[in-house]
Amino acid sequence: MFWGCVLKKNQPYKVQHALEDGEFPVLHLSNAVLTGSTGSSKKDDGRTTVTISLKAGGDPTVEKDLKHLVIATLCPDKKDQVALDLYINVSQNITIACQGEGEVHLSGYFEPNNSLDELGAGGIGGFPLDDDEDDDEEEEAEEQLDIPDDEVKTLKKDAAKATTAGGAK
What we know:
By secondary structure, this protein is an alpha+beta fold. The chain is built from three helices and eight strands. The protein has helices at 116-119, 132-143, 149-168; strands spanning 2-7, 13-14, 26-35, 48-55, 66-74, 81-89, 93-99, 103-111. The chain has a four-stranded antiparallel sheet with strand order 1-8-3-6, with no helix packed on it. The chain has a four-stranded antiparallel sheet with strand order 2-7-4-5, with no helix packed on it. The longest helix has 20 residues, at 149-168. The chain is elongated.
């Protein structure tokens, strides 16, 4: 399912508000585009940065708060668009913001909830989960011949001799 938002200076976006029903627990950020830049000053060159902040807030998967991690830096007339490949768990306390004078349009999509419990015997994407391959490998391993240890030693010696003799020529 498509997702998009517009980031403006001092107006952060909280990812938790994206979808409350939990049907789509992962947001994939795909693209950031700089629009509406007011030009550039010599100090900042019109640069706009997009950041993500993550608040631990009792989440056992997050050790500490992460603040203002830069995921994109955009400049008018130089780099006004950047492709992203970020997956965000919408149940975490994540905020996306921008610093700079430009407006940033983010786009992406929600990943559907594809837990194995829900897939059952249906597989993934309509393709069945095939574990027969593992069974075949086990059968092949069982069919291998057992070679007595003394024969293995003899074979190793012969191989070493052949290698040494081949290198001496």
